[in-house]
Amino acid sequence: MLSRVAERLYWLGRYVERAENTARLVTVNNNLLLDLPGSASALWELLLELLAASQSFRQRHAAVSERSVIRWLVADQQNPGSLVSSLRAARENARTVREVIPSESWELINDLYWSAQDTADSAIARKTRQAYLDSILLKSQQFAGMLHNTMSRREPFQFILLGATLERADMTSRIVDVGAASAKQSRGSGTVAAHENIRWMNVLLSLSAYQMYRQQVRERVNGPDVVRFLLHDNSFPHAIAWCVDELEHALASLPHNRLALQANRRVLQHLMRANPAALLANGLHEYLDELQVELAKLHDQVVNTWFALRD
Amino acid sequence: MMEINWPEYVKGTVCDELVAGGGRARPGAASLLKHLRTLGGEELLHRKKAAEQAIRAMGITFTVYSEGENLDRLWPYDIIPRILRAAEWARIETGLQQRLTALNCFINDVYNDQKIFRDGVVPRDVVMDAGNFREQCAGIKPLHGVWAHICGSDLVRDRDGKMYVLEDNLRVPSGVSYMLENRRITKRVFPELFESYNIGPIDEYPAQLFDTLASLSPRGQDDPEIAVLTPGIFNSAYFEHAFLAQQMGAELVEGGDLVIGADDCVYMRTIRGLARVDVIYRRIDDAFLDPEAFRPDTMLGVAGLMRAWRKGKVAIANAPGTGVADDKVVYAYVPAMIKYYLDEDAILPNVPTYLCFDPKQRQHVLANLEHLVVKPANESGGYGIMIGPAASRATREQFAKLIQANPRNYVAQPTLSLSTTPTILGRELVPCHIDLRPFTLQGAKHYVTAGGLTRVAMRRGSLVVNSSQGGGSKDTWIVAD
pLDDT averaged over consecutive 10-residue blocks of chain A (311 residues)? Predict the structure, then answer.
C-alpha cells in the first residue's frame, strides 16, 4: 500500500472519531447544563479549554456564551477543530482514497458531512441540539460498523483503526478531564456531593458507558471508580486500556512495527501507573496531559515509520 | 406543470434523436416516448429530483477551477436517455476501430520511418510545426506498435442524419466514469425500462481497460502492477481517476508516490518500501510528466520517467508524444491516413475542414466567417472557439486577425446543426443539442464501449456541450432492433 494512502486512511479514522467525540463532549455539557443550570458559563469555558480551542475562539469572540461556543465547536468552518470541519476533513481524506474503501462507506461519510453541514444551525438552539448530536453519533457509529463488517482485515483497515483508536484514547482522556474539572467545580461551590455524582454519571453517559459501568461496578457512581473504569478497563471500547490493546493488535499486523510497538507500550506503562483516587485528589489534569503527550509520541512514530517518504 | 406533447416538442428542432416529424417516435424510441407520456410531467420532475439526490449521495462530482474552497460540483445529468439502434452502432464501432488503428500507424510512423511524409500524403511541416511533436519520443517502438491506447472520439449528427467525427481525443480523454455512473443512476431512476428494452451493457469497461493496460506490461507477467497517475485532487477529472483505479483494482498514484531507481525501473513508495510499477495509466499531460525531459517546473510528474519509458522498463498509456495526432489540422488528414495505412475507405466521415495555412482555403474562411466555426488547432475543452453565426462583428474581426497572424494554428468547419434530444430544463421539456463520446481501446486487442458519454448543451439553443462550460450528460442506450 502507498504511504500516502496509508496516511490518508489514518486521518480518515482520526477525523471521524474526533467528530464523534466532539459530539459526545458537547452532549456531556448539554446534560450538565440541564441538571445544574447555575454553572453554565464555567462549563463552556471548560469545554473550550479541553478541546484546545480556547485561544482561537477568543481571537474571534469577545465573550463566552452558550450560542457562540456551540457554534464555534460544532458549526464553524473557521475552527479547524469544529465538528463540521472534522467531518469535512474526514470526507476529503475519504475522497482521496475512495478507491480503497468500500464504496458504500464513502457514500455514508459523504452524506454524514453534507447533513452535518446543512443542518448545523439546529445544533445552536437547545430544542434541536440533542437530536442533531444524536444523529451525528448514530451515523459515525454506522460508518465504523460498516468498515468493521465490510473491510478485509488488511493494511488499509489497520491504518483506519490505528487513527480512530489513537484519537479515541486521546478524547477519552479529555472527557475524563472535563468530568474531573467540573466535579471539582461543584465541590468548590459548596453543593452537595450528589451533584458531583451527577457529573460523573454524565461523563459515563456521554461515552455510552453507563450500562457497562454498572454491570462492572456495583458501587454507586463515584469519581475514583469512574476514572479507574475509563482508564484501566480493558473490555470497554472507550476505555483507554482497551484502546491500547486494540492499538497493539493493529500495530502487530503492520510491517516494520518495532518502534511503534515500543511507543505503544510506553503509553501502557504510563496508564498503569495511575492511582485514580490519589490523582483525583491531586494532579489528575497533569497526569492526563502527560498521557496525551505519550499518545502524541506514538502518533509521531506512526508518521515516521509509515508515512514519511523515504527512498 | 411540465407538458409532454411530442408534436409540439419536435417543432423546435431540425433533427431529433428520439422524435421524428409530427411527433412520431424514431425506430427504437417508441416505448421510451410512450412511457414518458404515461408517467407525465410531474412524475418526471420527481424522478429528476430523485436522480439529483442519488448523484449527491453517490458523491459523483467534477471539479471546477477557481471556485475558492468549493472544489467539487455535482455531476450534471439529464434523466432522459439517448437511444441509438444496434445496427447503426455496429457500423460506428467498426469505424472507430478503423480510425484508431490508422492513427496509431500514423504516430508510430511519425516517430520512426516517416514514410507518410516521403510519400506526400501528409505534409511534413504540418506535423513537425504543430508543437505536439516530441523529439524525446523519436525512434521508440512501443509494444504492439500502439501509442494511443485509449481514445475518446467526439461524434455529432448533422441535419442530414449522418454521424460525423468531430475530433479524436488522444491525450488524456476523460468522461468514461461518468458514462458508467450515468447508467447506474438511470437504472435507479427508470428500472422499469430495463425490462422492456434490450440495452447493450457497458459495465465491462474497467475490466477491458485493465486487460488493455496489462497487455502493455514490459515484464509480460500474469499479474502486472498497474498505476493510475493523477495530478491530484484538484484536477477536474480526479473523480474519474479514483473511480477507474478503484474499478480496476489498480493503485492511484501521484507523482510524489513514484521514484525511478538506479536500474531505471519505476517504483512506488509503499509502507513496505519500494514496489515496482509495470504500467502507468497517466492522466497528466506530456509537458508535466517528467521535469528532466519536459517542463522543469512540474510538481506533478516524476524525474526520470521518460528515461524509464525509453528503456522499455515501464509502459505509459497513452504513450508520451501521442498528442502529435490530436490536432485539428492533423485531424483533416485522417481519412487519407486510413487509405494510406489500411487501404480502406473511412467508414466514419470527417466534418469538412478548411486548413487556414493553405492560402486558398484561408481566403475562403476569411470571406465566410459568419457561417463557419473557427477552432484553434491545439486546444481542448471548447476553449478559444468562435461560432460564426453567433459571434459579434468585433469577435469575427478579432478572429480574422488571429488567423492571419498564425494560420497554422486555425481550422474552420461549417456550422453543424447538431441533433437534439428531449431534455428537462427547469420545468420544461426542451430539444437540446448533443454529441457523443465513445471510448475506444487498443492494446493487444480492440474494444469500443457500447455507446459512450452523451454530452448535452443544457441551455436552449446552445451548441456548447463541455462540462467545464455548463454542459450536462445523459445515459446512452444501444438498443437491439
Answer: 93 96 86 73 79 81 86 89 94 86 90 93 91 94 95 96 97 89 68 70 88 88 93 96 97 96 97 93 93 97 86 46
Cβ-in-10-Å burial (0-12, 13-18, 19+) of B53 comes to exposed
DSSP count for chain B of H helices, then E strands: 15, 22
Partner-chain contact B57 A111, CB within 8 Å: yes
Answer whether A1 sits within 8 Å of B245, measured CB to CB: no
Collect all residues from A whose CB is shorter than 8 A from any CB in B.
1-6, 92, 95-96, 98-100, 103, 106-107, 110-111, 114, 155, 254-256, 306, 309-311
**Using CA atoms, how far apart are residues A66 and A49, in angstroms rounded to an integer?**
14
| Chain A: closest CA distance from residue B43 (Å) | 25
What is the reported pLDDT for A227?
A: 95
Residue in chain A nearest B225 by alpha carbon: A1
Residue B94's pLDDT is what?
98
Low-confidence ranges of chain B (pLDDT < 50): 67, 70
Query: What is the crossing angle of helices A3-35 and A193-206, to 10°?
Result: 150
Contact B335, B350 (CB under 8 A): yes
Residues shown for chain B: 481
Residue A142 CA to its chain's centroid (Å): 16
Sign (positive or negative) of CA dihedral B315, B317, B320, B325: positive
> What are the start-end ranges of the E strands in A50-105?
none
Burial status of residue B479 (CB atoms within 10 A of its CB: 0-12, 13-18, 19 or more): buried
| Of the partner residues B58, B59, B271, the one whose CB lies closest to the CB of residue A254 | B271
Whether residue B271 and residue A306 make contact (CB cut-off 8 A), yes or no, is yes
pLDDT of residue B293: 87
Report the distance separating Cα B149 and Cα B159, nearest Å: 32
Sole residue written with cell 465504523: A144
User: Given this model, what pLDDT does residue A190 score?
Assistant: 53
Determine the Cα angle at B234 with ends B232 and B238, to 5°: 60
3-state secondary structure of A4: helix
- A2: nearest CA partner in chain B: B270
| Closest listed residue to residue B30, CA positions, set B456, B438, B1, B38 | B38
Which residues neighbour A302 within 8 Å (Cβ) at sequence distance 6 or greater? A10, A162, A166, A260
Q: What is the pTM of this model?
A: 0.81
Closest listed residue to residue B261, CA positions, set B247, B277, B272: B277
**Distances B393 to B387, B397, B417 between C-alpha atoms, Å:** 12, 6, 21
pLDDT at position A311: 46
> CB of A220 within 8 A of CB of A197?
yes
- For A4, the closest of B246, B257, B259 (CB atoms) is B257
The ipTM assigned to this model is: 0.75
d(CA A13, CA B217) in angstroms, rounded, equals: 35
The one-letter amino acid code at B463 reads L
Mutate to test the interface with A, among B62, B180, B254, B271 (most CBs of A within 10 A): B271
Element (DSSP H or E) covering residue A221: none
pLDDT for B72: 66
Secondary structure class of B138 (helix, strand, coil): coil
Q: Is the Cβ–Cβ distance between B289 and B320 less than 8 Å? A: yes
How far is residue A65's CA from residue B95's CA, in Å, rounded to a whole number? Answer: 70
d(CA A214, CA B71): 48
Cβ-based contacts under 8 A for chains A and B: 60
Say which residue the cell 486487442 belongs to: B445
State the pLDDT at residue A103.
83
> Which residues on chain A are in Cβ contact (under 8 Å) with B277?
none
Amino acid letter, B309: W
How far off is chain B from A301, nearest CA to CA, in Å? 13
